[in-house]
Amino acid sequence: MRAAAFTSFGGPEVMRVMEVPDPQAGPGQVRVRVKTAGVQHYDCAVRGGWTPAYGIAVNFPQIPGNEFAGIVDQVGERVTGFSKGSEVLGFAILNCYAEYVVVSADQIVSKPQTMSWEEAGGLTGNGQGAYIALKAIGVEPGETVLINGAAGSLGAFAVQLAKEWGAKTIIGTASESNHDYIRSLGAIPVTYEEGLAGRLRELAPDGIDAAFDTAGGEGLRAAVELVRDKNRICTFFAYDLIEELGLRIVIGERSATRLAELVDLHTKGKLLIHIRQAFPLDRADDAHRAIESRHGRGKIVLMID
Q: Is residue 31 classed as helix, strand or coil in its secondary structure?
């Protein structure tokens, strides 16, 4: 099969399309013919030399990618609920930038007809990440929540989930060009620039109850200044500042149950998946450059089939 992979650590330029052996589904597994694969900062970190947790080894040639959507084309023994031809979306740790991926059957859910392949390929990682983060900081009905970096895929999911879970006021930091987009999601936009803490006080005179950071910098420091309980601040970006700022590390595992809940919200029109750009497989390097620029709104995906 064709896959985008790397044979040494480095920048986006190490990504290459190459031929690798087709994977085969074993007991309890399915093989999926991949239509789309989401691109995440996680993938770029692996490409750059970071080793994922969970006891997973990086072996060259390594195929990155940890979210996908496609059509089941091989079903292993003891798998129920899915058959050849089932349209699904799901998650893995690696190996999704390829024509085929093999995963356990408990890592996929059915794709509704109302969801495009691009949307399906881009939901799993950031959607579940936002869910895990907001549950960790305990977003409750009637509260004021800050999402730092609200225009990116992770931040946009967080805004929408906070709204769905009853937050009264959601404030989202973003560049001015993305303010209309932030408003459309249900948040009050505010620029990142110096003096952010003062502007946040004006927008939330009664204080900010919880904050989720996806961008670091001034926004995270403002959250630490304004949120009374540091246990209600979570960063999925500035890991190097966690100890300095006295924050806790939030870790969570993805699940098919949670993914199915997100799919249901999308079906009901309550969870928008904005696709920033779709790249063909042979431009996986450009997809990595685009996401590492940290500009623009929404999700980047690879179109594989």
A: strand
